[in-house]
Amino acid sequence: MSYNAERRLLAFLLSLVPLLALPAAQADDTPAASPLGDPGAIRVLLAADLETTLSSQMNGTLGELKASLGQQVAKNALLAQLNCEEAQARAKVAVAELTMAKQNLDAKRNLRKLDAVGDLEVAMASTEVQKAEGARALAQAQSGYCQVQAPFAGRVAKVHVKPYQTVAAGTPLFDLVSDGALKVRLNVPSSLLPRLKPGLPLEVSILETGKSYGAHISAINSRVDAVAQTVELEARLDAEPPELIAGMSGTAHFPQAND
To answer: Which residues belong to any copy of the Multidrug resistance protein MdtA-like barrel-sandwich hybrid domain (predicted)?
Structure first.
């Protein structure tokens, strides 16, 4: 090996020394035990009491959207309207067929009084009325699919579609999260399970606000994750701070459970 080649090899080996000297915590991407630097803290996530994705119940074309991202909406508020001409036409046909079936039944009953028809024909005419009433109810229900309404009061968390877009049945339209108190979701070591019970207080520290909030356990999962050796809990905040929104995260402490 030439002298210059030896020098290049030595320089390369020396460049690796700082990398080999890195501490183990920096050699991988494993996150710290706690985002707040406290190894005893348990990660938590804030979630809305109710949240859902509203989807289209029919094929159709949307009109102008009545709700936008982040907007607060009341229960039963109109969020979107689909073109209803076809559904409304089917409903009118169903109403007309029901009227005709009722008229036929009246005629059969009058003829029965004159012994011009038998009981079977009257019964069949009555069945046709029931069938037409079912068709009308179905058409009216399908007409109701043209309007997308909020099932509960809350805020629009995501809008999946654009105005005047043609959608198929089942297409997601809006994500909606409820107003009011937030839930705290967390997984704790299963070793704490004997000391946990509904109503047990805890302190929740939220990263986004840098503040701590009081809470209490509201639900304990009936099954332990055998692999992670944890159990899922839900807790309720003792107050409704306006600065907190679903999706924020942080850590929790159980003063009584850790004694």
So the answer is: 53-175
Task: Give the pair of three-digit tokens for residue 48.
Answer: 């809305």
pTM: 0.67
Backbone φ/ψ region at 229: left (φ over 0), alpha (ψ -120 to 50), beta: left
Distance, CA of 79 to chain centre: 16
Pairing status of strand 201-206 against strand 147-149: unpaired
Domains and CATH numbers, the chain: 31-49+180-253 (2.40.30.170), 51-83+146-178 (2.40.50.100), 85-144 (1.10.287)
The pLDDT of residue 256 is 56
pLDDT (tens digit, 9 = 90+) per residue, 166-207? 999 999 999 999 987 889 999 999 988 888 899 999 999 999
> Distance between CA atoms of 228 and 13, rounded to whole angstroms?
41
Work out the average pLDDT over 204-225.
Answer: 92
Distance between CA atoms of residues 80 and 148, nearest Å: 5
